[in-house]
Amino acid sequence: MGAGFVFFTVIPGLPSIEAIRQMELTIPLRVYTIDGRLIAEFGDQRRNPVPIEEAPDLLIKAVLSAEDNRFFQHHGVDFGGVIRALIANLQSGDIVQGFSTVTMQVAGNYFLDRREKTYTRKLKEVLLAFNLERELSKQEILELYLNKIFLGQRAYGFAAAASVYFNKTLNDLSLAEIATLAGVPKAPSARNPITNPDGARVRRDYVLKRMRDLQHITEDDYLTATNAPVAAARHIAPVEVEAAYVAEMARSYMVENYGKTAYTKGYRVYTTINSNNQTAANRALRRGLIAYDQRHGFRGPVGFLDPDAGGDFSLVDSLQQYASIGGLQPAVVSEVSSDSIDVLLSSGDITQINPAGWRWTAHKISSELRTGDVVYVAMKTGTTQLAQVPEIQGAIVSLDPTDGALLALTGGFDFYAGKFNRATQARRQPGSNIKPFIYSAALDNGFTAATLVSGTPIVVEDDLGDTWRPVNYSKKVFGPTRLRRALVQSLNLVSVRLVRGLGTPLVLEHLQQFGFDREHLPQGLSLALGAANFTPLEMARAYGVFANGGYLIEPYFIARVEDQKGEITEYANRTMLCPECAPPTERFTDLDLGILYDPRYSKRVLSPENAFLMNELMRSVIRTGTGRRALSLGRADLAGKTGTTNNFRDAWFSGFTRDVVTSVWIGYDTPRDLGSRESGARAALPIWIDYMEVALQGKPEKALQIPENIIKAWVHKDTGEAVAVDDPKGFEEFFVMGTEPHALVRGGAPAVQTDVSGPSPTLEELF
Question: Which of 120, 189, 215, 720 is the most exposed place for a label (fewest CB within 10 A)?
Fold first, then answer.
């Protein structure tokens, strides 16, 4: 009857031999930078599989001493152990002693419910153990055990446990630590060295005694190890680069494309993120947001904890309800005087803030704070400063303009304070950041950098009789102004006249070439002042067209995906620049001629001449205009444009070199006035500079190649008309050949040059 039960009930429920051969470990999803530094780990089980050849011999001896010292003698079941366990269990009337060999534990852990404790389950273990021993070698079974067994704290396998408990690799463990881990499988949840260090010590010493008795270690080794403390602590996977917004993008992509198994199959996602760039972006954005926030004053404490409720220990415990945010730590004020503030940190330490640490508040701090107030502090190079978590938010997006690879992305002050990714999800008005695209449309339609456009006031009346009176940021009125100078000074009225003169449909069509979705572009003249809705990622992509000479890039952030064996399952299908792969005028002829774009290469959407001229105009913005703070970087190849919305609700700076294009946005999540003078130049540009100082390190200056039909001509700085080279009010301007003003000759010197290999106009030459 018992044999029938086994044959008809137990055996049909066992996994097939093929399933045993194909068994896979559950390994978490890990996300890395392009240079191999860990960004994040996703999954319920921590596991770091190691081949049996790489497992320390002492670890194997410790495990077998504790669990199955006859492992290499039996065939899956140790019958002597079975008899001993059955006698003990029958005497107690319950299952008080197990008889599982290592092989049986592998069978039970892989295929059976660990929580079930019945004789039927034990019978299944025995039968599975025989199958395993028949199909796998002892070394293969031992490898499965070392990588599969549960060791508490969500750690599966000894390599993961070594990391979790001791923050070490297997090869770095001491004998005492190896014995500690070898003792955990007996009761992984209740007697691991974190939850029960005393119980773990008892079990460790038992393992060491077994190792000594089996002559795996000496008496001196035994005594030294048993006298060592149980120094375990909970260590999480060491995140090497803070890039939580990118990690979430990668996680979402993997689940969408690989399903829920993305969390368990051991995929390694290598993003395009450069670790140095990402660290610089995090630091730059936080510095910039804190600087803005501090310019607008101290808002007071964020809470209060009663100092008489139980002393420092109670305060430290209560302080845990306040999270550290963006590197700022919560603290409780313990004493206030006119020349210092003592604060208690969540670590239990007390530190002092000196007057220099609260000078930014412009307050008499002794009247603002009292004992028990909860504040935030910043720890900087041995000093403590009073701080506050900014209400303002922002984003940085940085791309490689040659192929669209994401170099850095930060979607807010702190991902864990709110997971909304402003770099990819926040649609905000770009303000003046949109002007270069309007000027580019003008250059494509008969305007030159020297064309005069009226900067006088304009009144627009709609069909309902309402009027719109746009003004310049400075509130000043300008007369006819050259296009270059108008962009340098970001004159709103010139932009409005350009859109009105060109016609909104034409401008909209031109902007679409930069990847902007027409759905998010306004249909009226407000387009001229940036009354559209774009994300920082979309702005960076669009500016990339200017940076690379006229090609629309497709941003991407995953370089490759590897499986747990290290084999590549997906590689970035990026598009590259290839000027020789298509005629430079294809943008204007592809629909008529039926030209098919090669998907391997980026599409040219702007002529080389237009891209070059716009580069020149935006370099002037850096040299002499609203972006001149960027001169602190000491480079001549920078180009860009500030952006401030007409209502001061958004501040931008987008700029680039041939190697890096970066957009910065700051504003409130619920749009509101940023405050007096908080323009793109003041609020966003310093963040861009801070980041680009790192991003451009080691990258030589590169000038955009000058197209063959670009020439220089001498023009008057006020009228834009042609003058001789010796005219005191003349300077050299770039033109597409055939669009230059009529050349005048004074004193025999020609006013037009076809050799334009010389330097660009200087500040003095321009104005």
Answer: 215
